[in-house]
Amino acid sequence: MAKKRYQIIAEELLLQIEQGRWHAGQKLPSLRSLADQKQVSISTVQQAYWLMERRGWVEAKNKSGFYVSSDAVLETQLPRKPGCKIIPCGLSQWRISLNSTNHDPDEIPHLFGRATPDLTLSSLNPLKKSLSRLARSANPISLGYGALQGVDSLRQQIARRMIDGGCKVLPQELIITSGCQEAICCALQAVTQPGDIVAFDSPTYYAIIQMIEAMGLQALEIPADPTTGISIGALQLAMEKWPIKVCVLTPNFGNPLGYLMPDEDKKKIIDLLNLHDVPLIEDDIYSDLDFRPGRPKAIKAFDTEDRVILCSSFSKSVVPGVRVGWVIPGRYFEQVEQQKYIVSLNSATLPQLAMAEFLEGGHYDRHIRRVKQLYAHRRDLVKDLIRKYFPKGTRISCPKGGLMLWVELPQSIDALKLSTAALKQGISIAPGPMFSVSDKYSHYFRFCYGSFDEIKDIAAVEKLGELAYGLSKL
Amino acid sequence: MAKKRYQIIAEELLLQIEQGRWHAGQKLPSLRSLADQKQVSISTVQQAYWLMERRGWVEAKNKSGFYVSSDAVLETQLPRKPGCKIIPCGLSQWRISLNSTNHDPDEIPHLFGRATPDLTLSSLNPLKKSLSRLARSANPISLGYGALQGVDSLRQQIARRMIDGGCKVLPQELIITSGCQEAICCALQAVTQPGDIVAFDSPTYYAIIQMIEAMGLQALEIPADPTTGISIGALQLAMEKWPIKVCVLTPNFGNPLGYLMPDEDKKKIIDLLNLHDVPLIEDDIYSDLDFRPGRPKAIKAFDTEDRVILCSSFSKSVVPGVRVGWVIPGRYFEQVEQQKYIVSLNSATLPQLAMAEFLEGGHYDRHIRRVKQLYAHRRDLVKDLIRKYFPKGTRISCPKGGLMLWVELPQSIDALKLSTAALKQGISIAPGPMFSVSDKYSHYFRFCYGSFDEIKDIAAVEKLGELAYGLSKL
User: Fold this and answer.
1) Do B112 and B153 belong to one domain?
2) What SMART domains does the record point to (chains A, B) (predicted)?
């Protein structure tokens, strides 16, 4: 699946658009001038522009050339003065989340609502084999209560891999958890008391909101840019104004925006944390799903005072079903370790041993190379389908990694209604209101393409588009 | 391992002692009169008395006969006016718990501190085989995020078994958790707000105390009788006096006392809960380890208003390593379900499927029959060893099920010091201060005999006794 020349040119142009070199409505270079510049044929440039047109990034205007589309990228949400309030989300909001993500595939065959990776790949076979062999020969130690901190061999493997994210961590500095959710939950519980203010980017992963509510905390939403992430300016203002107790961020391909925070911003965040003596809970779960080679740095890579609590798991990169995650609590090690103990004692041993073998044997690297290509392809495919089947004015995020798209519908379309109507057709999506304590995402939804099936799922996107059209006319 | 006649007679007498028919210091029937009464030979009665003497229940007085030993059973803790305070336990107390339970068997070969079942039995093989087969052929559904509530087949099996405990529950009324700890944690979080008062029996499972502290709750210890459990009178007084938000109890073979609450008391507790509109978190984890046939009823069996949240797991009856537990939240279903979602999403699917097969195939019943005999034997063996090797005045609980003994040392012996000294010899015990927010158990410890090994562990009990002797002389 090596990329064709025209695809590379299209992506270069898109990057320039996203970086602000070309603005909405601006004319792009002519076919001839770009062909000269890139040393390719005119037809190659034409193919590149046609691809960009199909994806909705550019518009062809009758014979005068190609222009940057007015809805090429999601509008940047301008920093606003953030409000601080006890969040109103409760059981009903939680019920929406559950309805959008917790389905039996037999009942809802098109599960675009949940960020599940592809679980059908043969590159997962070594993991199944390890699990099978380890279970058959399980000794009393692996059937018993394991060490609270987790299996040593796995901690070693994870510590080694964290170097790619710019983090120097010793195996004994990390604790294995039952998935990333448990890691975040323990971290948040460890550093807060009821009533404390938690700052996070908006829109954000809905479970963060539900944790904040369940723990009696206060939510402070900070606006985020769909390309570069949380507004540093807004965060700075908020930290000056409010006694923020902890920040929660997913800097790399986060949920739902999929943005990639520039390293420069990561450094600035560390400066802010240090200045105000605040810890950060960093969700690193999507970082290995960078569509380019390698992975971006974690914010923790720039952490000079050991105040970042990095949380992650193999749920997005490998499989969620084994529930193997980890937390690197930094200076909060003892508090987080105690929380892990209280919440569920140790995590299951056998899946940890199997995952350690998967990493040691090089199977993880092979699997990751495979899924990066696959997900990049699915991102493009699904974007094309949404462009094709959804009402004019629909805009889509441009994640450079991860498993999901954030889709802005024309303002008249209620995403909750779309979600309800879609479920009746066997299709799940995650409606915008799940991702915020405010009501500003009523016409947004998250679409997860990780397990998108090119045979059985394309018609479902068409159906979803039809439903959106229907709702736009109401 | 059918019981001999003399063993049965000894146990009948012990039961009468525990029920108060014979008091400490009282003369027991003569050999001849008891032989007549039981229609057995005098030598059989003599064997019964000798057995009781070895166990420390009776004392032979020169030729005048056998008397009930003054330390035959643990002293009943008289109901006192319970105090209510923010508990002082913190990281240091938690560290003690961790040091006493979280060990690598390579470093600490004699793990009497942790309530681990026997993990070496061949009756566990069908579980390993199921796990192995299921892992090898794992489909995308079992590798993905499963249903939040858990696997249907397992919920059906558990619901069916709950009938033995007197509970009529539908499969959809229970939620699978990652062990009993997660079940209790979710239940407690679901029904409390910071500052609320939680009532529990004393001594109690240490993790309850740590949860109370971590959640900012207030602890109210209610005295408990080592044979029948929590003092109903004291609980009644406490509920009249304090705005108790929730009670936490383990009525059957609980941790650490191992008492068995009479059904009459279970009913009385339900009456109190109904009267004061209070929920109960019932830990049912040891109930299947009744040394008699069958299992005792749960408090939930008498629950007329659906206010008991029953928590349990297979960690004591089968293996802890797979982390499969469950919660039956009654009227608090939605709140507990939300907590489970927040804490760790769903639990791993493959171990649930394997456990369902273990139950469906009758392997669970066979395993339970085996371990009941084994643990009853180990209880007696370890009691004999403690009698033999520990200082005069040491008293031991008489659990009729479960995995542990509660040992009272002569008052001068500091159990924490004993624990520290024992660890240096490769022996772990759980010192009394772990089990209370007060300081009244400084000369107690918990001894878990579930995985006691008759070959390698006997010398360790002797060593422990020597250490206790040494400390008694300080």
Assistant:
1) no
2) HTH_GNTR
